[in-house]
Amino acid sequence: MKTNLKSFQEKINYQFNNENLLLTALTHSSYANECGGAYNERLEFLGDSVLGMITAEYFFSQNKKVPEGELTKLRAATVCEKSLFGFAKEIDLGSYILLGKGEMNTGGRERPSILSDAFEAVIAAIYLDGGMDKAREFVLRFVKEAVAHKNTEAFKDYKTILQEIIQRNPEERLEYVLTGESGPAHDKVFEMEIHLNSNCIGKGSGHSKKLAEQAAAGEALKLMGVEI
């Protein structure tokens, strides 16, 4: 199995000096386990930090009167798995990822965790190959568009909205309770409930505990009749 590096570079509008970096960024561990070679987890680790720096710098410079808490929310919404999955879909990243047979046969090319991790790995590959300016150019292509449509689902912090409502009554107490998890270690689904004074007011699921909590908070707000 091969991937079309030339086509992908045209799609992202960046030509690599060292195409091995890109190949590693597009290689999932399941493929490396079957065929050998490097895979993208280390690049993902670096890409996460590069992405965080670029988005923090951008929001800091573009929102001079916005307080730290709001900047944190904005950055968190931009770099969450849901947003990165959307960015990856924009460049059809799933079609270029090298996957093992098992992952390929179980829908790995459409799995949010795999695509979002690979997107961060691509950021790191560009950073190592061309420097911060090129990485910034690549990242901001997506971030600027996302911010322009920040009323979308990914930018809504349901947990904070719910917490602010509940805090109006000091005697009320919210608690997030993990009720279950399923799936393989690399692609778990977590089930979460929100309890208000021990009563369940919302349920949600996601590929991380944070995503599951957001989903549960969103359901709770809808049940409370809050427009979100």
| Largest sheet strand order | 1-2-3
Tell me about the biggest sheet?
3 strands, antiparallel
Assembly form of the protein: single chain
Number of strands: 3
Question: From the alpha-carbon coordinates, what is the Rg to the nearest angstrom?
Answer: 19 Å
Count every helix, treating DSSP H or I runs of 4 or more residues as helices. 11
Contiguous uncertain segments of 5+ residues: none
Shape: globular
Helix content: 55-70%
What's the N-to-C terminus distance? Answer: 45 Å
Give the helices and strands as they follow along the chain.
Answer: HHHHHHHHHHEEEH
**What proportion of the residues form beta strands (DSSP E)?**
5-15%
Structural class: mainly alpha
Mean pLDDT metric: 88
Structure description:
By secondary structure, this protein is mainly alpha-helical. The chain has a 3-stranded antiparallel sheet, with helices on one face. α4 packs antiparallel against α5 and α6 packs across α8. It is globular.
For this entry, give a set of tags.
3-stranded antiparallel β-sheet; 11 helices; mainly alpha; globular; 3 strands; 228 residues; 11% strand
What does the secondary structure layout of this molecule look like, with pairings?
Layout: H1 5-12, H2 19-25, H3 29-35, H4 41-62, H5 68-79, H6 81-90, H7 101-105, H8 112-130, H9 132-148, H10 158-166, E1 174-182, E2 189-196, E3 199-206, H11 209-223
Antiparallel strand pairs: 1-2, 2-3
Provide a brief overview of the structure.
The protein has 11 helices and 3 strands, in the order H-H-H-H-H-H-H-H-H-H-E-E-E-H.
